[in-house]
Amino acid sequence: MDYYVESLTHSSVSIHGHDLNYPPHLHREAEIVTVISGEIILNVGGSRYGLQPGDSALIQPESIHGYQSCGCHCLLTIFDPSLVPSMHRAMHGGTYESLVWRGVSAEYLHAANCLAELNISTDPQTLIKGYLYVMTTLLTAQLPPCQRQPAAYDGFRRILQYVNEQYDQPLTIREAARRFGVSYEHLSRLYRERTGLTFSEHVRMLRMNKAKRLLQETDMTVYDVAVRCGYSSERSFYRAFRAETGKSPRQYRSSGQQSG
Question: What is the C-alpha separation between 204 and 172, in angstroms, rounded?
Fold first, then answer.
């Protein structure tokens, strides 16, 4: 995921997802993730949650969040909260930021699966809204409110957006700190508090996600992929890529072509 702020073509999207690995990002829609198998690490608002099979998390619109996982299967629903008026009022009033439910009901799983099977472009909005009502009602009825992030968080959003726009260039935390007039120590602490990641971990995730996509979707040479993703040499890219995936860039490209 290369973009810090996302926007949906439709008012809701619901999919079966595998191996969610998204760097910190935000969007105007609410988001619900439910783990079917495997494990997901959710970072949101400076908190870190380990989600196991049967767990579900509800994320407030415009809350910075990211995922890390390996070998997981989940249901991911992203939707305009105005489709569900009761939730829209709660979110607009800052009642919720992020909520985690340990163990979802069979009724919730049924609604979530049904929603994921719908065609968002052609199926009736009333049907989509109906499943959303069931899901959000079951979740919000049993979870306590928590505080919204403070206004000071907006300054960090500008820093995070800068990183998401510049990660394919030579970039260090000291340069980012100087640009925004904060100390290296303050930015290091803020990064960990707000994202659950270090600055270098976030940059590496952004670069690796882009590299994987370029290797799978283009015929670019490994050297060109390395340069496009912000690495100064093919050797440093190779070392970072193998540490991330356990494969060389060429092996990763070949395995994707064979599975396709």
Answer: 11
Does residue 227 share a domain with residue 114? no
- 127 with 159, same domain: the answer is no
Alpha helices in the chain (DSSP H): 85-92, 106-117, 125-140, 153-166, 173-179, 184-195, 199-217, 222-228, 234-245, 249-259
pLDDT tens digits, the chain, 260 residues: what are they?
A: 333 334 444 456 767 777 778 888 777 788 889 999 999 999 887 778 899 998 988 888 777 888 888 788 888 888 887 777 766 555 555 555 457 888 888 888 888 888 888 766 666 777 888 888 888 777 766 655 444 444 444 577 788 878 888 888 888 999 999 888 888 898 898 888 777 778 998 888 889 988 998 998 899 999 999 999 999 899 999 999 999 889 999 999 988 754 44
**Residues 42 and 196: beta-carbon distance below 8 Å:** no
Phi, psi angle pair for 100, to nearest 5°: -125, 130
What is the identity of the amino acid at 1? M
Fill in the amino acid letter for 78.
Answer: I
51: CB partners within 8 A, 6+ apart: 33, 35, 39, 40, 41, 42, 57, 100
Specify whether the CB–CB gap between 27 and 113 falls below 8 A: no
Give me the domain span that covers residue 50. 5-140
Whether residue 161 sits in one domain with residue 82 = no
**Token representation of residue 70:** 């390996």
Eight-state DSSP code of residue 168: T
Residue in 167, 222, 245, 149 with CA at minimum distance from that of residue 3: 167
In the numeric block, the tokens 């949650």 are attached to 49
Q: Do residues 63 and 178 both lie within one domain?
A: no
